[in-house]
Every structure is written in structure tokens, then in C-alpha cells.
Design a protein that fits this description.
5-stranded antiparallel sheet, globular, glycoprotein, alpha-1,2-Mannosidase, hydrolase, calcium ion binding
């Protein structure tokens, strides 16, 4: 398994497949795990949990102290307040003496204490630091062992661990028996009313209920493998018999959500089948003949209806198990819902030999992946017919969570390097765009530019630490877990949304979600830190105190006042309590005989494992390509790396053991992850301050006299960058350019298939690189220089005094990238009123060139001081207002050299997503097509325009601003499906493709229509009556980078320079090693 020793994959719970905007307006309707509000008189409160032995000791101390006080007062001795002070000191000393799960002497703890100020250094709503006195105004906790949301600071002995394991099993049995006795064969238990709940037949649009409940005894099926994991063979066998008897098949007239049924029902059946039939689980069922697998296959066939009649390959969100997809089914689905089918469908394919399940799920993953934004983020919801994102806000929680989770788990369970690379690329995009400055939690941002769009975190985000454990990023997992741990301490649960600016609840319900609990479990498996066992006990006690009813476990309608909801969702037994049990069950087969196998937890907590016979690459081509696809079709589903001209980055860590030692530089050493238990870290209290949890005297036990909260040092940013030049078809024209010279350069570029071989040569003062394109460099942030310092080039480590020398001529592709990244414009011309043989520039529209296609703009000395254009048609008043626009002054020479083409708009094919007719193609020849965004991929629009003979294509964005349109993955490596067995590659596009903002695009369309009317343009062909051919012309110009700017240009990352790179014309002989 990947990651730390004994690490397991977690099962993050399900995503709410709703748009973020809708969720913010209707929280109870959009979180599918919320439940119906119950009247106060229906609420049931469990009996108070008996106090611990520590409570008794404290009561004894208080009794003794009170007696001593009375005696002393009677004799006229010490005053009572003095005794209270003495008692407080004694109590603190006693608390200090109690072990916190770490076998360290008091002298060791003193050495671990670190002094620091109270400033946090964070930015919440503009505040630059915390006011420590604010937290001291909160009421003090008199007895921390009896306070909710606190850890009992006792040594985690073996007997105590076993007691907690039994308590967790008893919790499961209480809920399971409550369901069987009061709700079965319905889907769920109402734990307050103690009756059953099924689908809502009276309100088919009640998706909070009907997406999940389909009248198939859901809780029984979902809990099957929990019985097996808890080593209850008789109950497990009995439950299988009940499923076979009462459920049988899924020929049910229920419209359910594909995602929910997949993870809760299909995953449960597959997991129970594996437990019952695979001897490695040590709980095989006698007489079992694969009936659960047959039921799973029956369900899988019904869910496959969601993949029919979808042009993108992304499945429909809901399906009727008997009738299939309704004609009026909604086209909006969430990324997690469509992209989290691969584990279950993959296992079903491997076990049954039917390749279609894994093929369909795999295609859906890649179709989603290929639509990520320019900064590498996945949208929250998507239109399955057009492939366009329907929500611009994104995060790691509801709507996207399990998509990221299933990338790494698919790699572990099914194999395939694609999944691992996609996971690493997604984690890098998340770290760069979603991670808060504190490094403790993740934000919700705009999909395209990463700007903050919400100031809350949702409870589903608590899955991420568990996934990071599997990926080996323990430090990030520890910090993110600490944030949610302190939220739990504050409310004894985690609310659906927590406002990190106001430090308060945004949406207050807690439907017994398991995400934080599973992350806590996985962190313990990876670290064996007893702190996580103590956190588990805290959770167990709080659930027992606040959610127990006479027949089950109820959700919290409010984490603030602890009001109950009358609903126990099935995942309370399949995940929440299961992870609590496994936390304390060291002897479980998952932690012993199977700990090094490929098993994973699904996002519903179901255990999935494949033996080697199902992993043979020869029999299962999905390790290399999707089932049943040709090589060209496979390329269409292949992941695409984030396209950036300079540089392309993926997260990386240095493997010190495999570093080649250079002749002059010592290896760069990674900082140790952690060396002591979590509560002893100097930054452990930092997360508490961010959440606003009140302090108690336990927080001060290890404090230094100078302060108790140390401002954490932010992690040094370390990334691997690979430098690339601009797309191959990039050429620039300026005043000194010779046409023949440019044509010869283009010819050479087309004939040259590869550049000179990359060489990295060690020299005395560092390394010499003969070309920069293709170099992979490890860099880390240097705060003193406000830039990045290279710590490794290729296989050579660099120390602080090492430099990188690059041959100057090889820097040209980087300079070209710098030039290409400058502001570009679509320059509009009209005929000169005084000279019909010439055109007059009237307006520049800011554009962004695509990452694919041809780019040959006219580079100009573009002044930053605009001047009003004086060339307007005085006799056409209609144009006066629009033509009087600021336009940068241009020299006559520059104006004459710009190649201008006519503009055309085909209204009938406004988005350019269909091939053009023959008659339309004749009109399009050598003109600039203007089309709308949406309906198909950008590269397909360009392909159809090019096939029709267009000179260029301008895409009008649906939003303000523009961005670099991505293609099929770069060069000949990536492609998209155009037809059967065919593909379109980036290199196939030989025309300009640019994007313009929505507002500028509307103005451009108005001008095209008005100029068409004034020119009297009419078509003699009735088939092209909707074509709009404009007398306007346009050309592409770009701001020219000066020689001084090129000379001072440096390699950069994240807009900051790499400070130890130098370009030289040649290498001095005396510097060679």
C-alpha cells in the first residue's frame, strides 16, 4: 500500500450532488444526509454517562478540601481563599503527573516546551493576528474530565483499549438491533419514533429521501461487511440469508441517485461477497454460492442505463431501477457523483468478467478530468450533455470530494499509473489554489482564477486527511485533522458548515457523518500516536451522550443546543461506528494479515480487495487502456496535464536515498515530519485558536512562561517544475521581420522533430545545462530573497551556494513564452472614409490565445498611454459613439503590416459545434469565425472552423474575462473523440484560436450586425440566409517585449523568480569539474 507504514485507504462519505449556490440558499434541501425536523416532545435523551474514575478522585479531593477548610476556619487559621489557591496548585500538579499517552518524564516535557508569542500570523477577515485575551474571557472549565469535547488524559492501556473496542461494538449492536426490531424491512430507522422509513412515494421530487431510499432494506445491506469486520460470523451469515430472502433482486420502481446506490448498495454487496468467499478474510460462509455477487451484477446492469444516450460519457445522475432514465431527467450532476463509480464498477468487472462496467466508469473519470480548469481544478457540477461546468465555485467537500479520493484508491486497488499521476496533479492544484495560508484547512474558490468565494468549510472536507495518509503526506493530514478536531471539541460534533471567519456555525446539523472519524482512524494506523486513540474515545463518549436513543442513534439537528433529528442514515453503521471499532481493534485481519494487501475502503467504508488473479495485466487491459477501446480511442480518455507555457508544476518530494551526489553539493535533507505526540507539538494549540475553542487549564500544562501558543512556521513550499516552451506553431512578426525569413523559420520548425539532447553537467560552482526546455528542477521558496532557490536539477542536488548556468541560446523558447504571455488584442478595422483602399483601426479587444493551434501575431511597441482615435466616419452617426474609443497610437508602418481578415458569424451554428455545410464553408473561406462558448470542447470548434477554411476563430466567453483554452493534452499525445476510431490532436490545428470576454463579444456582435446592415450585405443562397458577413476586418496584435525586458527576464515560478539561475553564452573552461 502507498503511504506510511500500515496505512490504509479511507472511505470518505458521500458527496452532496448539488450546486454550491443552491446549497447556500437551501441548506436543508441540498444536503442529502439532513433529515426531517422532529417536534420537541418527540426527542429522546439518553441517560447520563457515569463519571470516570478521575471524576471520583476530583470529588474526593474537593470533599477533603472542604472539610479542611471548615476545620481551619473554626480554629481561626488559614483563610478559605488561601486553601483554594493551594488546592488549585495541587490539582495542576496532579494533572501534570497524569500521562497524556506519551512516555516522557517531566524534564522531557519541559525540554519540549517552546516559547512563543500569541500572534497567529493568519488572515481572517482582514485581521492580521489573534488577540489572546479574547479567549481568556470565556468561562473557565472547572473539571476538564467531565467537560464535553475533551480528552480523558489517562494512559491508553491495553485493557482500556479493549474496553473501548467492546463499547464501539455495543454501539453498533444497539443501532443494528434497533433497526431490525423496529424498521426492517424498510430502508432506515427513525431512532426517535422507533419506526421505519422508506422512499417518499407522495413526493417523488423529495431527493433528500428518494435519492437514497429505494425500498431495498438499505441499512441491512449497508451493514453487511461491518458485521464481518467485527468478527460476528453467525450474525453475518444470518444477514446474508435475510438479504437473499427479502431483497432478492432490484426490479423495483424506484428513481434513485446512481452515486448513492453505487456506494451504499453495490459496494456493500461486493464487499460482503468478498468477506464470505475470500479465505484471506477468515470469515467465509459455508454454503455461500455467490448469491450476493449475482445481486450485485443485477444492480450493476440497471445502473448502466445511466450511461446510455449521454453524448459526453458522463452518466445521468438518476435512474429508475426498473425503467431506466426518464426522458425529462435533469442534466446536472456533480463531479463526485459521476466520477466515483470506478472502485465498485471496477471490482464488479473483475469478478464477473464483464468489462463494460469498468470501461464506462473509467471513461467518465477521464471525461471529467479533461474538463478541469486552467488552474487544474474540477468544477462542482457539470452539464452531462454539453460538458460545461454549471457552478464556478469549487472546493474539496460536497460535490467533488470522492472524485479526488477515488483517484488514489483506484491506483491502489486496480492498478494503472494514470490514476496515480492524476491524483498527484490534483493534489498539487488543491495545494496551490485551495489551501488556506495557515496550511490547516481548504477554501472554496472560483474555478478559473482561484479567488475566494466562500468563508466556510464543510464537514465532508474532513475526509482529506485520510486520503493524504494514503498518499504519504502526513504533515498536511495532521494539520487538517487538528482543525476539525478542534471544531469537534467546540461542539462535540462537526456541523455541516463552519464559518472560519466568524468562528461560528453556518449550518448546524450533524447527520452522524464519518469523515473526521475515518481520518482519525487512518492517522492512527499511519503514526500509532496514542493521541488519536484518545480522540476516538472523545468521539465515542460524545456520541453516547448526545445521540443515543432507546432504539438507535439519532442525527443532531443542531450541534449548538444538541436537538435531535429523527433519522439514522445507513452510513452510521457502515462507516461511523465501524471506524470507531477498527480504531481500537488492533487484532483485526485488516491490520494483520491484510495490512500489506491492496484492499481499500470505498467512500461508504466498504472493504474492497482483489486477489492477484484479477490483476493480471494480460487479462485486464484496463491497466493500460479502457476495456474494448482501440489505441486511438484510449488516447481520448487519457489524462491531460495542466497546460502552462512556463512552467508546468507537479508536487514532488526528494528521495534522498536515490539522489546522485554531485561533486560539490551536499544533498538536500527533508525536514522530519514529527518527532513527538501531537499534543506536544508547539503548533498544536494554533488550530484551537483558529476555531475559537475555549481553553481550559489542560492547555496550559506544558506552557512556557513566555506564552502558550507558538506561531507556527509555515511549511517551505517545495515543488518540481519542468520548463517548456510555447506551442510549436508560434511565430512573431515585427517591423524588422522579413517574410521570407519567417517562412524559412516556419519550415525549419515543421521539419525539426526534436531539439538537441538535454545535458546537465556538474561544474565547480553548480551545474551547467545546455538547454532549458525539458529540465526538471526541484525548487523551494526562499523568504529572504522573495523567490525560489533550486535545490536539485535533474539528478544533482544543490546546496545553498550552488548556481545553475544555462546556455544563452537555449533560453529563446523561454523568451518566446514570455512574449506569448503578453497582452494580445483583436484589432478591428473599418474602411477609411477618405481612402477606400485602406483601413482604419478603431478598437482593440483584449483576447487570450488558446494553448493549441497557430499563433503568429503582429508584435507592436504598445504604449501604455492610450490616445483617442481620430479616424471615425463623420457621416455615419450610428458609429460615432462606439467608434470614439481609446486606441493606442500606432505608427503608419505598423498599421500597414497587420494582416486583416473579414469577420463572419453563422447564426444557425452559433457555438460552432457542428460541421459546416459546403455552402457555408464557401462563405467562411479565409475569414475570422465568431462563435459562442459552450456545447462542445474548444478544440472541436477550432477543428470545424479550420475544416471550413476559416483563417481564425474567436470564441465569446460566457463570463467576463478570458482564459487560455486547452486542447486535447498537448502535441500528439492527447486526443479527443471526433468519430469512431478517429481523434483530434493539438498539432492538427493550424489556425488562430482566441477567446474574448462576454461584454466585448456582445459589442463585437452588435458591430457585425450594424455594419452588415449598412453595407447592404445579402446572400443569394437561401441556405445561408442566417450567415452574417461583416465589412469589418480584424487582425491579431500583441505587445512587444523590449530587448531590455528580455535581457532581464528570469526563470520564474508562481510569478516569483528562481534566484540562482544564470544564462551564459559559453562555459568557462576553468569551471568544469
Amino acid at each position: 500500500m502507498a503511504g506510511a507504514s500500515d496505512s490504509l485507504s479511507n472511505g470518505s462519505s458521500d458527496s452532496a450532488c448539488v450546486s454550491q449556490e443552491q446549497a447556500s440558499l437551501e441548506p436543508k434541501e441540498t444536503f442529502r444526509r439532513s433529515s426531517q425536523t422532529q417536534k420537541p416532545e418527540q426527542q429522546s435523551r439518553p441517560p447520563r454517562i457515569p463519571s470516570s474514575s478521575t471524576d471520583a478522585q476530583n470529588r474526593s479531593n474537593r470533599t477533603g478540601s472542604q472539610g479542611a477548610t471548615g476545620a481551619t476556619n473554626a480554629s481561626g487559621g488559614i483563610r478559605p481563599w488561601i486553601l483554594m489557591v493551594i488546592f488549585s496548585v495541587i490539582q495542576m500538579l496532579l494533572s501534570t503527573h497524569i500521562s497524556n499517552g506519551v512516555n516522557a518524564s517531566s524534564s522531557d516535557r519541559s525540554a519540549d516546551s517552546t516559547s512563543g508569542g500569541g500572534s497567529s500570523g493568519n488572515n481572517y477577515g482582514g485581521a492580521g493576528s489573534y488577540n489572546r485575551h479574547y479567549f481568556r474571557q470565556l468561562p473557565r472549565i472547572k473539571d476538564p474530565t467531565r467537560a464535553a469535547g475533551t480528552i480523558v488524559t489517562e494512559r491508553m492501556t491495553e485493557s482500556r483499549r479493549l474496553t473501548l473496542r467492546q463499547e464501539a461494538k455495543d454501539m453498533f449492536m444497539h443501532g443494528y438491533n434497533g433497526y431490525l426490531n423496529n424498521a426492517f424491512p424498510k430502508d432506515e430507522l427513525n431512532p426517535v419514533a422507533c419506526n421505519g422509513r422508506g422512499s417518499d412515494k407522495y413526493d417523488p421530487q423529495n431527493i433528500n429521501i428518494n435519492d437514497v431510499l429505494g425500498d431495498y432494506s438499505l441499512t441491512l445491506i449497508d451493514a453487511l461487511d461491518t458485521l464481518a469486520a467485527m468478527r460476528e460470523p453467525e450474525l453475518f451469515e444470518k444477514a446474508i440469508r435475510m438479504v437473499k430472502k427479502y431483497v432478492r433482486d432490484f426490479n423495483i420502481n424506484s428513481r434513485v441517485q446512481v452515486f448513492e446506490v453505487n456506494i451504499r448498495v453495490l459496494g456493500a454487496l461486493l464487499s460482503a461477497h468478498l468477506y464470505a468467499s475470500d479465505p484471506s478474510f477468515n470469515i467465509t460462509v459455508r454454503g455461500y454460492n455467490g448469491e450476493l455477487l449475482a445481486m450485485a451484477e443485477d444492480l450493476g446492469k440497471r445502473l448502466m442505463k445511466a450511461f446510455e444516450n449521454t453524448p459526453t460519457g458522463i452518466p445521468w445522475p438518476r435512474v429508475n431501477l426498473r425503467k431506466g432514465v426518464s426522458r425529462d431527467e435533469l442534466v446536472e450532476t456533480c463531479t463526485a457523483g459521476a466520477g466515483s463509480l470506478l472502485l465498485e464498477f471496477g471490482v464488479l468487472s473483475r469478478l464477473t468478467g464483464n468489462e463494460s462496467y469498468e470501461q464506462a466508469a473509467r471513461r467518465a473519470v477521464f471525461e471529467l478530468w479533461n474538463r478541469r480548469s486552467k488552474i487544474g481544478l474540477m468544477g462542482n457540477t457539470i452539464n452531462i450533455t454539453s460538458g460545461d461546468w454549471m457552478s464556478v465555485m469549487t472546493g474539496i467537500g460536497a460535490g467533488t470530494d470522492s472524485f479526488y479520493e477515488y483517484l488514489i484508491k483506484s491506483y491502489v486497488l486496480l492498478g494503472g499509473e494514470d490514476y496515480l499521476k492524476m491524483y498527484e496533479a490534483s493534489q498539487e492544484a488543491i495545494r496551490r489554489n485551495l489551501l488556506h495560508d495557515s496550511k490547516y484547512f481548504y477554501k472554496h474558490v472560483h474555478l478559473e482564477d482561484g479567488s475566494l468565494m466562500a468563508h466556510w468549510v464543510d464537514s465532508l472536507s474532513a475526509f482529506m486527511p485520510g486520503v493524504q495518509v494514503l498518499g504519504g503526506d502526513l504533515e498536511s493530514a495532521i494539520k487538517n485533522h487538528l482543525y476539525f478536531y478542534n471544531i469537534w471539541r467546540k461542539y462535540q460534533a462537526i456541523p455541516e458548515r463552519f464559518d472560519f471567519v466568524q468562528q461560528s456555525v453556518a449550518i448546524s446539523n450533524y447527520p452522524l457523518r464519518p469523515e473526521f472519524i475515518e481520518s482519525n482512524y487512518l492517522l492512527y494506523r499511519a503514526t500509532k500516536d496514542p493521541f488519536y486513540l484518545q480522540v476516538g474515545e472523545m468521539i465515542l463518549r460524545d456520541l453516547q451522550k448526545y445521540t443515543k436513543t432507546r432504539c438507535g442513534w439519532a442525527s443532531l439537528q443542531s450541534v449548538v443546543d444538541k436537538r435531535l433529528e429523527d433519522r439514522m442514515e445507513s452510513f452510521a453503521l457502515s462507516e461511523t461506528i465501524k471506524y470507531l471499532y477498527l480504531l481500537f481493534d488492533e487484532e483485526n485481519v485488516l491490520h494483520q494479515g491484510l495490512k500489506d494487501s491492496n484492499f481499500v475502503f470505498s467512500t461508504e467504508g466498504h472493504v474492497l480487495k482483489l486477489s492477484s488473479k484479477y490483476l493480471d495485466r494480460g487479462n485486464h487491459p484496463s491497466n493500460n487502456q479502457p476495456y474494448g477501446l482501440t489505441n486511438s480511442q484510449h488516447e481520448s480518455y487519457h489524462y491531460q496535464y495542466t497546460k502552462q507555457s512556463l512552467p508546468t508544476a507537479t508536487h514532488g518530494k526528494i528521495d534522498v536515498e536515490n539522489l546522485k551526489s554531485g561533486p560539490m553539493c551536499r544533498p538536500y535533507l527533508m525536514p522530519e515530519t514529527f518527532v513527538k505526540s501531537i499534543p506536544y507539538r508547539p503548533d498544536a494549540d494554533f488550530a484551537r485558536q483558529m476555531v475559537g475553542t475555549r481553553e481550559d487549564h489542560r492547555d496550559l500544562l506544558e506552557a512556557d512562561p513566555k506564552g502558550y501558543c507558538e506561531k507556527p512556521t509555515l511549511d517551505v513550499e517545495k515543488v518540481v517544475v519542468e520548463f517548456v516552451g510555447p506551442p510549436k506553431k508560434t511565430f512573431f512578426e515585427d517591423e524588422s521581420s522579413d517574410i521570407n525569413e519567417i517562412e524559412r523559420a516556419e519550415s525549419r520548425a515543421k521539419e525539426s522533430k526534436e531539439t538537441k539532447q538535454l545535458m546537465v553537467i556538474p561544474i565547480k560552482k553548480g551545474v551547467f545545462v545546455n538547454r532549458i526546455v525539458g529540465v526538471k528542477m526541484q525548487i523551494q521558496y526562499d523568504g529572504l530573497q522573495n523567490g525560489y532557490r533550486a535545490v536539485r536539477v535533474a539528478d544533482y542536488p544543490l546546496s545553498l551556494n550552488c548556481n545553475i548556468y544555462v546556455e544563452q541560446s537555449s533560453m529563446q523558447p523561454l523568451w518566446d513564452s514570455y512574449q506569448r504571455s503578453q497582452d494580445a488584442y483583436l484589432r478591428i478595422f473599418i474602411p477609411n472614409p477618405s481612402d477606400a483602399s485602406s483601413d482604419v483601426p478603431v478598437k482593440d479587444f483584449l483576447i487570450t490565445p488558446a494553448d493549441f493551434g497557430y499563433w503568429r501575431p503582429r508584435v507592436l511597441d504598445y504604449s501604455q498611454q492610450p490616445a483617442f482615435n481620430s479616424h471615425h466616419a463623420p457621416n455615419t452617426n450610428r458609429f460615432d459613439k462606439q467608434w470614439h474609443q481609446p486606441l493606442t497610437h500606432l505608427t503608419t508602418t505598423a498599421t500597414k503590416r497587420i494582416t486583416a481578415k473579414s469577420l463572419i458569424r453563422i447564426q444557425e451554428n452559433a457555438n460552432g459545434c457542428r460541421p459546416y455545410t459546403t455552402s457555408q464553408s464557401k462563405r467562411i473561406q479565409d475569414k475570422i469565425m465568431v462563435v459562442d462558448r459552450g456545447g462542445c470542447l474548444f478544440i472541436l470548434k477550432a477543428y470545424y472552423a479550420q475544416a471550413a477554411g476559416a483563417h481564425s476563430i474567436v470564441v465569446i466567453n460566457t463570463e467576463e474575462g478570458s482564459f487560455a483554452m486547452t486542447g486535447a493534452g498537448g502535441g500528439s499525445a492527447g486526443s479527443i473523440v471526433k468519430g469512431v476510431g478517429e481523434g483530434i490532436r493539438d498539432d492538427d490545428i493550424d489556425i488562430h484560436a482566441v477567446m474574448i470576454s462576454r461584454s466585448d463579444g456582445r459589442v463585437l456582435l452588435d458591430w457585425i450586425r450594424e455594419n452588415e446592415s449598412s453595407s447592404g450585405v445579402a446572400s443569394s443562397d437561401s441556405q445561408v440566409d442566417d450567415e452574417r458577413i461583416s465589412g469589418l476586418t480584424a487582425g491579431f496584435v500583441q505587445r512587444k517585449v523590449t530587448k531590455d525586458q528580455i535581457a532581464s527576464a528570469r526563470l520564474s515560478y508562481n510569478s516569483l523568480p528562481i534566484i540562482n539561475v544564470f544564462s551564459i553564452s559559453n562555459v568557462p573552461v576553468d569551471t568544469l569539474g
